[in-house]
Amino acid sequence: MSAYRFSLATSSLGIGRAATGLESLVRFLVFGILLAMTLAVLAGVVSRYVFNDSFSWTEEFAIWCFTWLIFLGAALGVRQQRHVAGDFLPKDLPAWLTGVLGFTQNLILSLTLIMMLFGGYQLADMVGGTSASLQWPTAIKYAVIPISGVIALVFLLARDADNTGILVRNLAAIVIAGLIYAGLDQGLLGPLQGVSPSLIMLVVFFLALGVGVPVSFSLMFGVFLASSASFILPAPAVVQNMVTGSTKFILLAIPFFLSTGYLLNLGGLSTRLIDFATSLVGHLRGGLAHVNILNSLMVGGISGSSSADAASSTKILVPEMVKRGYSPAFSCAVTASSAILPNVVPPAIAMLVYASVANVSIARLFMAGIVPALMAAGALMLVAYWISVRRQYQTATARAPMATIWHTFVRALPVLVITVGVLGGIRFGVITATEAGVVALLWTFVLGKLVFKAYDWKQFYRSFVECGTDAALVGFLIAASVPFAWILIAEQVPQEIVGWAGTAADSQFGLFIILLVVLAVAGMFLDLTPAMLIIAPLFLPMMTNAGVDPVQLGIVMIITLQLGGISPPVGLLVFITSQIAKVSPSAVFRAAVPFIAATMVIVLLLCMFPALTIGLWNLLE
Hints:
Layout lengths: L1 H48 L8 H23 L14 H32 L12 H20 L5 H21 L12 H14 L4 H16 L4 H12 L6 H14 L2 H13 L5 H14 L5 H11 L1 H6 L4 H11 L10 H10 L3 H7 L1 H22 L10 H26 L5 H19 L5 H34 L2 H12 L3 H18 L2 H18 L4 H13 L9 H10 L3 H24 L2 H10 L1
Helix pairs in contact: 1-2, 1-4, 1-19, 1-20, 2-4, 2-20, 3-4, 3-5, 3-7, 3-8, 4-5, 6-7, 7-20, 8-20, 9-19, 9-20, 10-11, 10-18, 11-12, 11-14, 11-17, 12-25, 14-25, 14-26, 15-23, 15-24, 16-27, 17-26, 18-19, 20-23, 21-23, 22-23, 22-24, 23-24, 24-26
C-alpha cells in the first residue's frame, strides 16, 4: 500500500511538472499568435494607407491566427479556471457533496472536450484544398482543435494534482467520459431519438450550468448531446459552425481593444484620465464617486471592457474612496455600476459581438452608443450625488482652477486622442473597427513603453498573454453559442417566440417590455456575451418586423444585459469589485439597487425615443 501511495505521489508530481511546462509553452504560443495577428493587420493598414496598395493575405492570416488563439486560449482557460461559470451553488456544502459536484463538472468537461477533439479531428481530416490567399492546406486551420482538446484534457487531469485523491478523481472522470463517448456510437442515446433536439439541448445546458460547468462548455455539451441523439448536426459540422461564427474579421477587434485597455493600465495612462476627471468633477459633493463614473466613461472609449474597468478602478479608486469616508459597499457599488459604461460608449466589445450577430453597421452602432452612454453616466452621477448628500459623503470643495484643468487635460490628451481617432476613423469610413483597434493598440504601446517607459518587456509579455487569454475566452463563448443558436433556429424556436410575443403585445413598446423582462432574467444568470448571442437571433426578426431599428435594439440589449453584471445571483462586476476590495458581495448588491433603477429609467427612455440612439448618426449624415 505504501508503494502504491508513493507511486501515486510520484505520478502526481510528474503530471504537475508536465502541466506547468505545457502551460508555459501555450502561454508563449498565445503571445506569439496575438503578436502575429496584430502585425498582420497593421501591415494591411500600412500597405493600404501609406503605399496605396493592399496585401491580399493579411485578413485571412489574421483570421487563421484568431482561430488558433481561441482554441489554445480556451485550453489555457481550463488550466487557470478562467472560463465564466454560474455561481448558483451554496458555499457551505458538505465535503462529500462538493467532491461529487467536482467529479460531475470534470466528467462533463472531459466529455465535451473529447467530443470537440474528435469532431475537430474529423473536420481537419475531411477538408481539402488550400486557402485562397495564403495557399496553405486548409486542414492547418482546423488542426488546432484536436490539439487544444488534448492540451485541455492534460490540464484538467493536472488540476489540483498535488492531492493524489483528486488526481485519481480527475483521471476517473476522463476515463469514464471516454467510455461514454464510445457508447454514443453504440446507441447509448437511443431512447432520446424522436425527442426535440432543442428540448434536449436546453435541458442539458441548464443542468450543466446548474452544477457549475462553465457557460461555454455547458453550451457545447448541450449541442453535442442533442446532435448525437438526433443527428441534426454531425460533430464536424458543429465544430465548423463554431469556427465560422467566431472568426469573422470584425471580431478580431476584440483582442485589439482588450489589449489597448490592458496596456492603458500597465502604462499608467489611466491615471492621467483619473487626474483629468478629478479636475472636472472632484469638487462636487461626493466628488470621488463622480470621478469614478467619469473615469469609466473615458476609459470605456478606449478599452471597451467592463471587467477590465471594474478591476482597475477598484484597485485605484476604491481604497481612496474608503479612506475619505465612503462606505466600502457604496464605493464598490459605484465602481461596479459605472463599469457598465465601457460596453455602452464606443468602442465596446459588446457592440462588436452584436454587430456580428445582427449584421449591422459597426459605425452606426458606435455612434448610437454615445448619447446613451452620456445619459447613463449622468443618471449614475445623480444617484451618487443624492446618496452622498444623504450620507454626508465628501462635502463640496473649491472648483479646480482653469490652469489645473488645462494641465490635466494636456497630460490626458495623448490618451483621449485614441477615442477621437477611433470614432472619427470608423464614422467617416477611413478605417474598419478591426483596423482601428490595432492602431489604438499600437498608439497605446508607443505611449506607455517607448514614450513614458512605464513598463519593461517582461511586464509587457505577461500582460499580452493575459489579454490574449481573455480575448480567446470571449471568442470561445461566441464559438460555443453559434451551433446552439443554429439548432434553435432549425427547430423554429424563434418563430414560436415571435408568434407568442405578437399575441401577448399589441404595440412596439409592449414588445420592448417583453424583451426587457427576458433580458433582465437572462442577465441575472448569464454573462453579457452568451446571453446576447442566444437572445439576439431570437428577438431580432420580431423587433425589426415591428419597425424597431436594429441599432436601437442593440443598444437597449447591451445596457439591459449589462445590468446583470450588477444584479444577483451572478453579478460578475460586483464579484470582481468585492473580491478585490474584500467586501461582502451581498452588501454591494444592496448598494447597487439605486444605480440599477436609474439605469433602467434610461433604458425605458431609449425604448420610447429612437432618436436618442440613431439620431446622432442621422444628424451627421
